[in-house]
Amino acid sequence: MAMTNEHEALTDPASVAIHDGDARDFFALLKPRVMSLVVFTALVGLLMAPGQIHPVIGFLAILAIAVGGGASGALNMWYDADIDQMMGRTAKRPIPAGRISAETTLAFGLFLSVFSVATLGLMVNWLSAGLLAFTIFFYAVVYTMWLKRLTPQNIVIGGAAGAFPPIIGWACVTNSISLESIALFAIIFLWTPAHFWALALFKSEDYGRAGVPMLPNVAGERTTKNQIVLYAVLTALSGIVPSIMGFAGLVYGAIAAVLGAGFIWYSIQVWRMPDGDKKMIPAKKLFGYSLLYLFAIFTALLVDALVTKYFGLVA
C-alpha cells in the first residue's frame, strides 16, 4: 500500500516541484544505453536476413525500432518512478529528480510508441510493426507493470522484450519469422538472467529497499549463483547455434565458443564467491563481462554477415 501511495504521489503534479525538462532529460527517458543495444541487435538481424532492403528503408526501419525501444524506456520510467526514487542507481532519473513530470513522460512514451509502430508499418511492413508493438507492450505492461513487482522470475520472462529486436530486424527484410531469427532471440533471452542477476547480487539492498522481488532477495545468494551458472552455460551453448545451423561461419563459431567459455568462467567465480561477501567483486566482473560478451557476439555475427553476404567470402 505504501508503494502504491508513493506511485500516486509521483504521478500527482502537485506533489513535487516539477521543471519543464530539457532535451537531455527527454533523451534520458529513452534509456539510451538500453536503446543502443536494441539498435545494434536489430541491425545485426536486419543485415543477416536473406534478401535485400533499400538502404534508406533499412535506415528508417532501424530508426523506428530505436524510437520504439526508447518509448518502452519512457513508459518504464513513468510507471517505476515510485521505486526509482528509492534506489541509488535510479534516483537521479528525470521523474524522481523532479526534472520532468510523470504526465509528460507518459504522453511522450505513448506518442513515440504510436509513431514508431506506424512508421515501421507504413514504410517497411506490418509484421515488423506488429512485433515492435508487441515488444513495447511486453516491456511496458507485462514486465514493468506486472512481472517486475510480482515474481523473482521477472527478469527471466521479461527478458523476452529485450530479445525481440533481431527478430524485428530480420522481419523488416523478409516479412517473416524464421528459425535463424529465433536463434538470435535465444542468445539474448538466455543471456539476460545471468547479466541482471549479477547486478542484483551487488545491488540487492537497492532492490530490497524498493520492494522489487529480485532473486537474491527472495531465494538467497546461493540459489542465485546456481542459476547464474546454469544460464551462463545455456548462453554459451546458444552462442554457437548460428554456426551449427549454418547461417554463421566456423570462424564465428570459434569466437562464440571462446566468448562462451569466458562467460562460464566468470559465472563460476561468482558461484565460488562466499555468501555474504560485501565487496561482490566477482559479480561486478561478471556483469561487466556479460555486456562485453553480448556486444562481441553480435559484432562477430555482424562481421560474418558482411563478409559472407556482402563481400561474397566464406567466414
UniProtKB/TrEMBL annotation:
Role of this protein: Converts heme B (protoheme IX) to heme O by substitution of the vinyl group on carbon 2 of heme B porphyrin ring with a hydroxyethyl farnesyl side group.
Catalytic reaction list: heme b + (2E,6E)-farnesyl diphosphate + H2O = Fe(II)-heme o + diphosphate
UniProt membrane topology term: Multi-pass membrane protein
Other remarks in the entry: Carbon 2 of the heme B porphyrin ring is defined according to the Fischer nomenclature.
Transmembrane segments: 34-53, 59-79, 100-120, 126-147, 154-176, 182-202, 228-245, 251-271, 291-312
Pfam families: UbiA (PF01040)
Keywords, ordered alphabetically: Cell membrane, Heme biosynthesis, Membrane, Transferase, Transmembrane, Transmembrane helix
Name of the protein in its database record: Protoheme IX farnesyltransferase
Primary location recorded for the protein, binned into one broad class: membrane
EC nos: 2.5.1.141
Cellular compartments annotated: Cell membrane
